[in-house]
Amino acid sequence: MPYILISTQIRLETGPTMVGDEHSDPEIMNYLGASKTTILGNNFSEYHVSEPPRMVLDKLEKIGYRVVTMTGVGQTLVWCLHKEEE
Predict the structure, then answer these.
(1) Which of 21, 48, 58, 72 has the greatest CB tally within 10 Å of its CB?
(2) pLDDT tens digit string along 34-77?
(3) How many angstroms separate the CA atoms of 47 and 81, rounded?
């Protein structure tokens, strides 16, 4: 899986961080220590970690991911990361 999106709410920049959806690579989610959750009212699951985005970005860099872009959407910060295929 060459792309990953992570996000957090602006007021929660110290965590938690959303690190994947229900189709994310389980090995990467395990490496990040992510828990799969379904928020009441949603018909999909997400992976979250309690760590702030900076720590998640550091961990993903160690396994070869690089930030492609970052943006703010309303009250949400979103990072898109990519890993070159080997």
Answers:
(1) 48
(2) 999 888 888 888 999 999 999 999 999 999 999 999 999 888 99
(3) 16
Tokens at residue 17, please? Answer: 């961080």
For tokens 């009441």, the residue is: 40
Confirm whether pTM is higher than 0.90.
no
Q: In what order do the strands lie in the sheet with 76-82?
A: 35-37, 46-49, 17-21, 3-9, 76-82, 66-73
Contact 29, 56 (CB under 8 A): no
Strand partners for 73: 76
Amino acid identity of residue 31, one-letter, is Y
Identity of the amino acid at 62: K
Question: Taking the alpha carbons of 22, 46, 30, 68 in that order, is the dihedral positive or negative?
Answer: positive
What is the per-residue burial (b if ≥16 Cβ within 10 Å, else e) of 29-59? beebebeeeeeeeeeeebbbbebebeebbeb
